[in-house]
């Protein structure tokens, strides 16, 4: 497929996991892709492995970093059609043990980063009649111990996405994906028994792959989703419905 031929996309947190899979998916469908990440070594490795991809250092919590990214994108490609907000920060602990600095840092990256990216590129996205896609999480709707700031920020992303759809339609569509248990590097410290328990908690009976989330992101960013905006697409193998039935 060449759904993104002639188009340019920025993927934050593009150095690994869902972000890297999204870079590969969009590029495979014809897009020029900017791998935006603070991890230069991993980001360059992804960009070097994908035709028409470039790496850009980007701390998504920094307005200046976004301004620098915009300069790079316009100098290199002259346009932006798709912005995928995937960068995240997770620092675990119960609410009474999460200090203000950790709380603020997680909201600045997970929620503020998508706001800053939209603010920076909204002119280009309007001109291109482009698409915003936020990567939220099932944690936005289900309480799990030790993730108060992460859950709050991911819930905020869903609200922000709906707001952006209202504010910038019809020129720009804004949607979110809501991944569940996806086998990324975040699972490296979880043993096989823990992975099997998580797999059994899904209706699909397994963990998802980053490529499966990337496919959902590509769909929402494509013209095939032209009448979809302000929506959230859950990609969790039925984890949510299983939780609902508990």
Automatic annotation (TrEMBL):
It holds the Pfam family adh_short_C2. One of its GO terms (molecular function) is oxidoreductase activity. The keyword Oxidoreductase applies. The keyword Oxidoreductase applies. Keywords: Oxidoreductase. Belongs to the short-chain dehydrogenases/reductases (SDR) family. This is SDR family oxidoreductase. It comes from Nonomuraea longispora.
């Amino acid at each position: 497929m060449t759904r993104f031929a002639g188009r340019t996309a920025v993927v934050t947190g593009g150095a690994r996991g869902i972000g890297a899979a999204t870079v590969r998916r969009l590029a495979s469908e014809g897009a020029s892709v900017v791998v935006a990440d603070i991890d230069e070594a991993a980001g360059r490795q992804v960009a070097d492995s994908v035709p028409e991809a470039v790496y850009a250092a980007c701390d998504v919590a920094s307005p200046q970093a976004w301004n620098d990214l915009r300069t790079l994108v316009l100098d290199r490609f002259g346009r932006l059609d798709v912005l995928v907000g995937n960068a995240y920060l997770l620092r675990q602990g119960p609410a009474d043990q999460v200090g203000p600095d950790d709380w603020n840092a997680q909201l600045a990256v997970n929620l503020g980063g998508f706001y800053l990216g939209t603010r920076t590129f909204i002119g280009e996205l309007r001109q291109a009649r482009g698409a915003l896609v936020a990567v939220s999480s099932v944690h936005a709707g289900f309480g799990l111990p030790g993730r108060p700031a992460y859950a709050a920020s991911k819930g905020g992303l869903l609200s922000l996405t709906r707001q952006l759809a209202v504010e910038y339609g019809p020129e720009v569509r804004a949607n979110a994906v809501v991944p569940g248990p996806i086998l990324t590097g975040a699972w490296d410290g979880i043993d096989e028994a823990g992975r099997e328990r998580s797999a059994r908690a899904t209706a699909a009976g397994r963990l998802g792959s980053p490529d499966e989330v990337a496919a959902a992101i590509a769909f929402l960013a494509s013209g095939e989703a032209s009448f979809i905006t302000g929506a959230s697409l859950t990609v969790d193998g039925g984890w949510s419905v299983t939780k609902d039935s508990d």
